[in-house]
Design a protein that fits this description.
By secondary structure, this protein is an alpha/beta fold. It has 13 helices and 15 strands.
Length: 430
């Protein structure tokens, strides 16, 4: 490298807005399936999937081929002015794979845009304005979606956000104020608290309740059986819609195409992004024909939404997921859950291990069970530097080590990741 040349790291410092507190100390140049390769030629096992995105594996050859073929035909028209086949075919396919009577889809570019559009649609359909979201939830960082996000860490310097949003306690049993209740009793207590929030913090002009079936950024929080069905009933009792944010949980992540299926709920509006196109930027929200048709010309639009290349990739991605990848999620996810339960039993530093499918979190705690934020970072860095394994860190308290690998991961590689986690926890306890 000449004196005039700068490394990508230097260019990031000089020209990219500093929106994170720090990057991993390498630059990725290529990736394949579950492996990322740096400019130095070092290989890492990716167990975070670019924040739960590359569900069918990095550079899945069939998804890449579909995108390349579409690039040769049509890149952009604005799909809301001129019709094109990839958008039409993908919308039809989504109607086939989503739960309940969801039928019509609006395409955008990201999860936060999908959430914003879903809120607009709910308000238009119901004629009401107020929204209930959950504490610890994450729904995006634009001002509308940020208003739904129940974490102060994302809101510093950004207030005021959208009005008429209130937050109810999350179904977070590990630090529950109700004590050690059986799951069914906790589900009822958490749902009753949500209904109490409606009574005390709204005027009952309720347009929607918005929630993630499994909280991602909140710390991989899986609700107890019965909770989501109860919340769905509460929403409908108040004349509101249930918006289910499956941006992280969708497209096979939890062992079914959508997590809603496992909890026995049928969303009124379903938001999607991340895993929808295996890395190409695409978001969507889907509703029944009755709800969707309340949108009139001019109510909503996206210049790049429904890009033909991204939609072609998404179609290929769905086909890939249905060839056995989702079955692999169930098999490997069950094994991973058992292994993490053993780690929870073995180490005092682990407060709780929890998850569903290939979406698991390990909450680290200090001796007094307070959140161990520093320990989570140490474990993450140890796995990366000593074992070449990339894990995530998240949670409301930033103390949860996250497993969200490509859904194609093998048992051998999953064991390597579990061993890296265990070794990292041992290094903390030593």
């Amino acid at each position: 490298m000449s004196e005039q040349e700068c490394s990508p790291a230097d260019k990031y410092d000089d020209y990219v807005m500093p929106i994170t507190k720090g990057y991993d100390p390498f630059t990725v140049t290529r990736a394949n399936d579950t492996t990322m390769v740096t400019t130095e030629g070092d290989e890492y096992l990716d167990c975070f999937s670019g924040i739960s995105v590359t569900n069918a594996g990095h550079n899945n050859p069939n998804v890449v081929a579909a995108a390349k073929a579409q690039l040769d035909e049509l890149v952009h028209t604005c799909s809301y002015i001129y019709r094109n086949e990839p958008v039409a075919n993908l919308a039809e396919r989504i109607a086939e794979i989503t739960p309940g009577d969801l039928q019509k889809t609006f395409f955008c570019n990201s999860g936060t845009e999908a959430v914003e559009g879903a809120i607009k649609l709910a308000r238009k359909y119901t004629g009401s304005k107020e929204i209930v979201a959950l504490e610890m939830a994450f729904h995006g960082r634009t001002l509308g979606s940020l208003s739904l996000t129940g974490n102060h860490a994302y809101k510093h310097g950004m207030a005021p956000t959208v009005n008429d949003v209130v937050h109810a306690p999350a179904s977070y049993q590990f630090r529950s104020p109700y004590g050690d209740l059986p799951a069914s009793e906790f589900a009822e207590a958490a749902a009753s608290e949500l209904e109490r929030t409606i009574g005390t913090h709204t005027s009952r002009d309720l347009a929607a309740i918005v929630l993630e079936p499994v909280m991602g950024e909140g710390g991989i929080i899986v609700p107890p059986v019965g909770y989501l069905r109860r919340v769905q009933d509460i929403a409908h009792d108040y004349g509101a819609l249930l918006i289910v944010d499956e941006v992280q949980t969708g497209y096979g992540r939890t062992g079914t195409i959508f997590a809603s299926e496992q909890f026995g709920i049928e969303p009124d509006i379903l938001t999607q992004a991340k895993g929808i196109a295996d890395g190409l930027p695409l978001g969507a929200f889907t509703a029944s024909a009755e709800i969707a048709d309340c949108f009139e010309a001019g109510d909503h639009l996206s210049t790049f939404g429904g890009n033909p290349v991204c939609c072609a990739a998404a179609l290929a991605n769905i086909e890939e997921l249905e060839t056995g990848i989702v079955d692999n999620v169930v098999e490997q996810g069950n094994w991973l859950g058992d292994q993490l339960a053993d780690i929870e039993a073995e180490y005092d530093t682990v407060g709780e291990a929890r998850g569903l499918g290939l979406m698991h979190g390990v909450e680290l705690v200090a001796s007094d069970t307070s959140p161990a934020k520093t320990a989570a970072v140490v474990v993450k860095n140890h796995a990366r530097d000593k074992h070449g394994v990339i894990l995530g860190v998240g949670g409301y308290y930033k103390n949860v080590v996250r497993f969200q690998p490509p859904l194609t991961i093998t048992r051998e590689n999953l064991k390597r990741a579990v061993d890296a986690l265990s070794d990292g926890i041992e290094s903390v306890e030593r």
